[in-house]
Design goal:
The complex is a heterodimer. By secondary structure, chain A is of the alpha+beta class. Chain A folds into 2 domains: 3-54, Orthogonal Bundle (Arc Repressor Mutant, subunit A), CATH 1.10.10; 63-238, no CATH class. In chain A, 36% of the residues lie in helices and 22% in strands. Chain A has helices at 3-7, 10-15, 21-31, 35-50, 62-79, 88-102, 104-119; strands at residues 126-127, 136-139, 141-142, 151-156, 162-167, 176-184, 187-194, 202-206, 215-222, 235-238. In chain A, strand 1 and strand 2 form a beta hairpin. The longest helix of chain A has 18 residues, at 62-79. Chain A is elongated and about 75 Å long. By secondary structure, chain B is mostly helical. Chain B folds into 2 domains: 1-88, RNA polymerase sigma factor, region 2, helix turn helix motif (Rna Polymerase Sigma Factor, Chain: A), CATH 1.10.1740.10; 103-173, Arc Repressor Mutant, subunit A (Orthogonal Bundle), CATH 1.10.10.10. Chain B has 8 helices and no strands. The radius of gyration of chain B is 17 Å and the shape is globular. Classes of the chains: A alpha+beta, B mainly alpha. The interface between A and B is large, with 51 and 88 residues.
């Protein structure tokens, strides 16, 4: 039996992701030297690629797009050149305005929080740069007993949309995610969910109204999130009152 | 896709508008839970946004690229038991479907396409369709399927390959390239 004969029946399982990890590596090594198996993979790939198109279409929650695009636009704005450079800054403001128009209550909340942050300089770690478009950044307090290398900060751009960034965080555990909470007095309300990369870094957009909020909290919760925190916060961002 | 490579969020939003529904539907079909499907879809799209340079048009359509990433992430989550207890086996959740009037044409096209692919799948003998579904939508390896069905590993692998071959023949190529 040639190597090709031995591997040819693996093509289907390979395309369906059904080979065991060791077998998959072995098969991919074989593909590098076997034209016939490569051609068979390409030939049958169209059938595999059709499978996801067979499912019933279900409308995603509208909050999914809002949360996703909030993070994407914040990251794009952060990666963009300084406002003085060209025409990107006005376009960015315009998109943020669209977001604010879609969430009028958030516009008021963001303005209120910015004012509060500006007044309470003691809690303000530092604004990045001096321009009016730059976000204020508030440092997080991390429970060092549970997250020894953890750190985080909350960015509140002037034109809306708070972003929590973390670093050095441990994985939340199997079947678990990090959940962001907004604390007002003794009440907490759930906000975004997020995971961290293998290096412990991560980010979460917080599209909720922050008016009157005392702090942003983060806990580890079962996948899908919880209605109330199931542990003491591993991370807290105090918001000046 | 040039705009996406340049990190243009508007271009990315267009991709989400066009393929986000199909992506969420696939994740939901696999995990059977809206919240988990939502998390997975969001993570998958964020990973596309952050590693967008990896898209290669030579490898196929944008939709195939998007659905491939979502499938990979969903199966990965499933294998980490993220959603096993929540999985439902039927069409439960139908009452949660919402029509999207502004995309009616797109929705109709998607439904027609789904029907055509399902018809192609129905041309497979039951034992081939079963192993294809268990692997692709269930995230089971061939050895797990072999144990489950009490069939030799070689038989299971053979059925997978023959099943894909039969589906390929049943599908008109032009339906798969858009």
């Amino acid at each position: 039996m040639s190597a090709h004969d031995r591997f040819i029946d693996d093509v289907g399982a390979y395309l369906l992701g059904a080979l065991e990890p060791g077998e998959e590596r072995e098969f991919e090594q074989h593909l590098e030297t076997c034209d016939a198996c490569r051609e068979e993979v390409v030939r049958l790939e169209v059938a595999r690629d059709a499978l996801p198109r067979s499912v019933d279409q279900v409308a995603p929650p509208k909050a999914l797009k809002a949360s996703l695009m909030s993070t994407v636009r914040a990251e794009a704005a952060e990666a963009a050149p300084s406002p003085a450079a060209g025409s990107r800054a006005p376009a960015r403001r315009s998109r943020w305005r669209e977001l604010l128009l879609a969430r009028p209550r958030f516009a008021a909340a963001a303005a209120a929080v910015l004012l509060a942050v500006g007044i309470a300089a003691g809690a303000l770690v530092g604004a990045i740069g001096g321009g009016s478009d730059d976000p204020a950044t508030v440092a997080a307090t991390v429970d060092q007993a549970r997250m020894p290398a953890g750190q985080g900060s909350l960015s509140i751009p002037e034109d809306g949309g708070a972003i929590l960034r973390v670093d050095g965080m441990q994985q939340p555990g199997d079947d678990r995610v990090y959940e962001v909470w907004i604390q007002r007095g003794n009440q907490v309300t759930p906000s975004s969910l997020f995971n961290v990369e293998s290096d412990g870094s991560g980010a979460a957009a917080i599209p909720d109204e922050l008016k009157g909020a005392d702090a942003i909290l983060v806990t580890r919760e079962p996948a899908g999130g919880s209605k109330r925190p199931s542990e003491r916060p591993v991370l807290t961002v105090p918001l000046p009152s | 896709m040039v705009l996406l490579r340049d990190g243009n969020p508007d271009a990315f939003e267009v991709i989400y508008d066009r393929h986000g529904g199909a992506a969420f539907s696939l994740a939901y079909r696999i995990v059977g839970d809206r919240n988990v499907a939502e998390d997975i879809t969001q993570e998958a799209f964020l990973s596309m946004w952050r590693s967008r340079v990896r898209f290669d048009r030579e490898r196929g359509s944008v939709r195939t690229w998007v659905l491939g990433i979502v499938h990979h992430r969903t199966i990965d989550a499933l294998r980490r038991n993220m959603a096993h207890d929540r999985r439902r086996t039927s069409a439960e959740g139908l009452e949660e479907r919402q029509e999207a009037p502004e995309r009616t044409e797109l929705e109709v096209a998607r439904r027609d396409e789904a029907r055509e692919v399902r018809e192609a799948m129905q041309t497979l003998p039951g034992e081939q369709l079963e192993v294809v579904r268990l692997a692709y939508f269930g995230g089971f390896s061939h050895t797990e399927i072999s144990d489950m069905l009490g069939q030799p590993v070689g038989t299971v692998k053979g059925r997978m390959r023959l099943g894909l071959e039969k589906m390929r023949r049943a599908l008109a190529p032009e339906e798969l390239t858009t």
